[in-house]
Amino acid sequence: MIKVGIIGGSGYTGGELIRLLLNHPKTEIDFVFSTTRAGKAVTAAHADLLGQTDLLFTGTVNPDVDAVFLCLGHGNSTKFLEEHSFSEQTKIIDLSNDFRLQNDAEWNNLKFVYGLPELNRSKIIEATAIANPGCFATAIQLALLPLSKNGFLENDVHINAVTGSTGAGVGLSATSHFSWRNNNVSWYKPFTHQHLGEIGESLASYGNVIGKLHFLPNRGNFTRGILATAYTNFDGTLEEAQELFKDYYTDAAFTHVSDEPLHLKQVVNTNQCHIHLHKHEELLLVTSAIDNLLKGASGQAVQNLNLMFNLKEQTGLQLKAGVF
Length: 324
Ligand SMILES: NC(=O)c1ccc[n+]([C@@H]2O[C@H](COP(=O)([O-])OP(=O)(O)OC[C@H]3O[C@@H](n4cnc5c(N)ncnc54)[C@H](OP(=O)(O)O)[C@@H]3O)[C@@H](O)[C@H]2O)c1
Prior knowledge:
By secondary structure, the chain is an alpha/beta fold. It has helices at residues 12-22, 42-45, 76-83, 117-126, 135-149, 178-181, 196-204, 238-248, 294-308; strands at 2-7, 27-33, 57-58, 67-70, 91-94, 106-107, 110-114, 129-131, 157-163, 186-187, 213-219, 226-233, 255-258, 273-280, 283-290. Strands 3-2-1-4-5-8-7-6 form an 8-stranded mixed beta sheet.
């Protein structure tokens, strides 16, 4: 069994990892570290796990675990690694944005690989440290990578995406307060969202010219999931675009191209990314849908763990969507 530790266990991505790893046939949770709840039952923070685990949160780490997941807010992963060390064999998977950009990827003796399996599968298999991608970044890159690889992204790209409230973490804020969020929708950080950096680096990695990315993020009044749309000029036919995408994702374990228009619920509670293509005059519209906490965070982190430990990529991730 692979012994794992989870840091930031009372948050949303931490909770989702505990759920996944308790049901993973090859992992054993060694400890769940919490800054605020050491000594308390994990089920006190994650009530749905009642009867499934007797684990208590801890305030100390076991440095000899096989893998550790950092589920902390931005900047806190670096701080945590400065204050706690792990054995040279321990593989690290960080869910924050501390190590995602190429300029941040080397830290002390660690070299972080950007953990998007559809882009970096072979590098992930060899990696000892992973920078797990952002949630919007995952949905948007999966919508655009086949175009960037084949040199079809030289024109401007207009991107619109809506996320559920869990994207903002467990802490209560003005925009996650029920009275504000319910029956409401609004945009934020227009054209300046922090995920544009990692998206730009991945799209540019094939060496082709990339047009400007205009990204408008929205907050939706649901709890889970991201529906993203991106459109750009495309000279070819719809069938040519579909072939391009299906080719690119032939071997992808969780990313699939659908001929039918998407609805968010078909991927919520799963590690899937579904993609749909539509052509209107010269424009190609690409839609992608993911669960922000699974393919956008903890599910992708487990997918990366599976690759790093030479397990079948789908291990522990065959999940059921809550369609109705
Ligand atoms: N939510 C998403 O959909 C999503 C998707 C992709 C990536 N991410 C990234 O994953 C990371 C975790 O996200 P999350 O949604 O799980 O966040 P969260 O719900 O806010 O949980 C973060 C946890 O970090 C711990 N923590 C430790 N030091 C802290 C400090 N100084 N300030 C605040 N919290 C501290 C807390 O848990 P303890 O008290 O138990 O230590 C807290 O519950 C973030 O970097 C986020 O950007 C999130």
